[in-house]
Amino acid sequence: MFPWALHHLPGPHQEIFRYQETVRGFVHQEIIRHKLRAPEDPKDFISCYLAQITKAMDDPVSTFNEENLLQVVIDLFLGGTDTTATTLHWALIYMVQHEAVQERVQQELDKVLDTARAVHYEDRERLPYTRAVLHEVQRLSSVVAVGAVRQCVTSTRVGGYPMPKGTIILPNLASVLYDPECWETPRQFNPGHFLDKNGNFVVNEAFLPFSAGHWVCPGDQLARMELFLMFATLLRTFWFQLPEGSLGLRLEYIFGGTLQPQPQEICAVPRLGSPITREEDLALRQQVIQRGKQGTFSLSQHLLPWVLEDQRGKAKSPQVDRGGPAGSAPPAGSAARSRMGAL
Ligand code: HEM
């Protein structure tokens, strides 16, 4: 009833307000920086929005103003960071859990891609298995389990049910993503949900992690692109596995707005740049495991820096293992050729 009162009451929510203020301050500074720039063609969202504010200055009903600009940028940060990062975290966890799937993705990437260049979004057309795996990650992790709260502005019917004007709607997206009538193994990781019998990628209408219709996530295309590029690049570059002594993966989610994985450690082992046999591959992986936790990273921390740091200077040229077995791992600290150039 008195939302403003929260600002005066002590409690953990004060921390959220502090974070909010930090983000607002940052975006505010960016807006000022953009305004101080010499006039030029608008280059990004903020400069386009500022140009629109100027254009609509004489329109008394225009909603283009700086306060709205600030809020829209914050919305984009809120909607676009945690969702994509959390999905990638789940992707790595599922790859560790399903080693054979991880290997098959790497085999497909090795076979199809020209290894001398970075992954392009268009490549997804030639990578049906990788694409199916990523869709299955999004389906099973269901990071935005419930869509945004909406209210009916007029009386209507949905699926035969009457919805009087004013009804509050909470779209239960997870119920669709786990619907036993739409998915063969709704609670199990199964890339086959998105493949036909010939291994071609197929769309499934019940794949709705971004919601649907008029209220579909406005960032869905960006998210799909980011996820594909990051996932394919990571899997091309590293083999993911549990560190030595690990008690296993923790698959239960934590609810924090999105459904997040629990903090846990996973090894990102740089893949070898020369063809080796399956036996050598396994022996090398074993060596890496025996080197203990050197090279582990925590999922709750920043993803790549340690590996990048470790490999810089060693990776003289970004050569790769076309035709080599998938998931090959070099001994940690060796001067093995790596794929860091692909990042
Ligand atoms: C894996 C990634 C993502 C998932 C699963 C996701 C999912 C969703 C869902 C389910 C909604 C609610 C739709 C509704 O019921 O109204 C939503 C809203 C939204 N998303 Fe995303 N999203 C993702 C990434 C992004 C990205 C990358 C951006 C932008 C940079 C973004 C921006 C937004 C915004 C601004 C809204 C609110 C839209 C509104 O108020 O109508 N999202 N997203």
Automatic annotation (TrEMBL):
Keywords assigned by UniProt, alphabetized:
Endoplasmic reticulum, Heme, Iron, Membrane, Metal-binding, Microsome, Monooxygenase, Oxidoreductase
Q: What is its main location?
A: endoplasmic reticulum
Instruction: Report the membrane topology from the UniProt record.
Output: Peripheral membrane protein
Drop me one GO molecular function for this one. oxidoreductase activity, acting on paired donors, with incorporation or reduction of molecular oxygen, reduced flavin or flavoprotein as one donor, and incorporation of one atom of oxygen
Keyword match Nucleotide-binding? no
Record family assignment: Belongs to the cytochrome P450 family.
Upper lineage: Eukaryota, Metazoa, Chordata, Craniata, Vertebrata
Q: Which SUPFAM superfamilies match?
A: Cytochrome P450
Give the protein's recorded name. Cytochrome P450 2J5-like
Low complexity: compositionally biased ranges: 327-343
Query: Which organism encodes this protein?
Result: Carlito syrichta (Philippine tarsier)
**GO terms under cellular component:** endoplasmic reticulum membrane
One GO BP: organic acid metabolic process
